[in-house]
Structure formats: C-alpha cells, structure tokens
C-alpha cells in the first residue's frame, strides 16, 4: 500500500472546489482535487455564467441580506479576471460586461421607482430605450431599462483556465463514503493500492455531498432550463422582470457552431420543473412572444430543455440561502457556494476553518491516477 500525504484534499470539481484549490495553493497549502466525472459537470457548467451583484434579489423592493452578501462579487471576479489576487482568471472570456433589467408591461410603478432610486444607485443605472444596444431594440424592447454592472463569463473557458493551471493537482477519482476514514489528526481515503491522507478534507461536491460523511443537511431546488438556437438570434444578457420578486425570464447568450444559443432560466425554469420537455418549450415560446413582440424565429429554430438541481444547505421551507455555506466536523469541512458568483466567499470561509500551521508551499506528489477532463456545455448537442 502506497501512502501520499497532503495538507488538503478537495472532493468536487465544480467552481467551489476549483476556486478553493486555486486559492489554497496560492496560500501555500499542499492541496489536490478529486472529481468523479468531469470538471464543471452538474451545476457549474449548467449555470448561466452570471456573476450576480445582488440586484435581482432586490426585486421585492428591499435591499436584503442576500443582496449585501453578494454585492462585492462582481468586483472580486473582476480582480481575478485582471490577474490579481489569489485566483488568476486573466485568460477567461467575458461574454458580456453587463446585464439589463428589462421591465415587462404591467410592472409595478413603485418597483420601477425603487430600482431607479439613490439606494440602488450602486447596483443599477437607468438606460433610456433609445440608448439600448441594437440587439435589444431589434427584439422590441421599447421601455427604459436598468443596466447592471454584473458580468457574464464563458464557463467553458473558466474551467479550461483552471484546469490548465492546476492539471497536475486534479484527478478523476470516484470517492465512496466507505473509503473515507476520519482520524484524530487526519483523514484518509482508501483507493486500490493507494492511501491518500490529508490534514483536512474539503467536501465541495454539490449534490454529491449527500453521499459523503459529515456533510450536513442539504436541500435541492430543481430547475428545467430552456435552450434556443437560431440563426436570427442576437446576443442578449437580460432579466425580464414583472410583478414577481423573481425575474420572469433570464437570458444569457452562447455561441454554438457559429449560431447564438439563448440559455433561459428565471421563473420559467422554476415553475416548469414538473412539465414535460414539450410543454416547457411551449411555455417558453409563449413567454418569448409576450415579452419580445418583434422576435422572429426561423423555421430552423431548435429548442431543448435541461433539468438540473441546485444543491444547497437545508433551509426552512426550502428558501434560497443568503450566502455561501460551510460547516466543519472534526477534520472534514463541507459546504455549498449556492451561486457561481459566491465561489470566492466559499473558499475564504473554508480557509477560515482550516486551523492549520502556516503552510510551507510544498509541491504535491504526483499520483498514478487519471486526470480529469472538462464537461460539455448543456447545449453541445443542439
């Protein structure tokens, strides 16, 4: 039996695990990451790539704790995109530097006043309809909108960047709960002919945390996303808002074989979780017709749906958590970032619970294990 020792072993190759790996290795910890399938598979690659700053959480007409917790994330990500700080994302593609809040007809005037108020000035900027980019005017948006300083990134290039930087420390291994043994001063993982031992085990496997020890209680909130590919689509990045405290529709745009794909979530994805794919597509067609009267799809337009679970810490009444969440049990630290944007907060919460001596910047030993590869985009089959 061969034994390899590390400061940290991270389970889960989504954005939480990868950001934590990058951050902790920058701090000097001898850390590796184990992913059972592909880098980014599950929630991370299925996200819309939005780096939220909290504005959509203010649609109830108040600035909530969730808004405050996430408000600094665009700035934190921009630092990483500039190559500054503990995580270097300087080669990651930004799809858009901003998003728009687009009011639907019948929206409450009081909410519009709130979104344009001084208290929201750090989140939103009012843009007159005539000054909107051409892509938005072309689909029939004729009302003043709100520009959000919230970028959208290409998740494929995000994971490609992190894998390129840390490939030597990322392995494809399906760790079973029965293989994990917590001891007084360490945690060991038993594999065929190999024992991996670490001072702290970080469980960042999203929905997979439910199958790992000491992870804490978890909830899942399902979505049925809709994808639309068509040669007539122009790229837009927008939350369409109505009377609800949630966007009626959230659209991000992605390129697939030279054509734009609209990846659609928001309330559409939440309310349609129990629909058949056919019914969910019909619902999306009706919503697009209502919100975007000038949108003309070609006869070759292709629709598809994707079911995905958001894994989060357990909340009463399945409410959305306000922040990243991390818990410690002995030498095992587990948690969920709850949002792509909150990955920096997740990593720092993990670091705060490590309680280890000053790291020595030692290099992780090479292991005779397969290295992980990147998951496909959800729209790769369109």
* Overall geometry: elongated
Give the number of domains: 2
The CATH class label of the largest domain is Alpha Beta
Radius of gyration: 22 Å
How confident overall, as mean pLDDT?
Answer: 90
Q: What is the N-to-C order of secondary-structure elements (H for helix, E for strand)? A: EHEHHHEEHEHEEHEEEEEEEEHHEEEH
How does the helix and strand content classify structurally? alpha/beta
Return the CATH topology of the largest domain: FAD/NAD(P)-binding domain
Spatial separation of the terminal alpha carbons: 47 Å
Question: Which CATH-level-2 architecture of the largest domain?
Answer: 3-Layer(bba) Sandwich
Map the helices and strands.
Elements: E1 2-11, H1 15-26, E2 31-35, H2 43-46, H3 65-70, H4 73-81, E3 94-96, E4 99-103, H5 109-115, E5 124-127, H6 134-138, E6 145-148, E7 152-153, H7 155-166, E8 170-172, E9 180-182, E10 187-191, E11 194-203, E12 218-230, E13 238-241, E14 249-256, E15 259-265, H8 267-271, H9 277-291, E16 302-313, E17 325-329, E18 332-336, H10 343-354
What report would you give on this structure?
- There is one protein chain.
- 23% of the residues lie in helices and 28% in strands.
- The chain is α/β, with parallel strands linked by helices.
- It folds into 2 domains: 171 residues, FAD/NAD(P)-binding domain (3-Layer(bba) Sandwich), CATH 3.50.50.60; 147 residues, D-Amino Acid Oxidase, Chain A, domain 2 (2-Layer Sandwich), CATH 3.30.9.
- Helix 1 runs parallel beside helix 7.
- The radius of gyration is 22 Å and the shape is elongated.
- The model has no long low-confidence stretch (mean pLDDT 90).
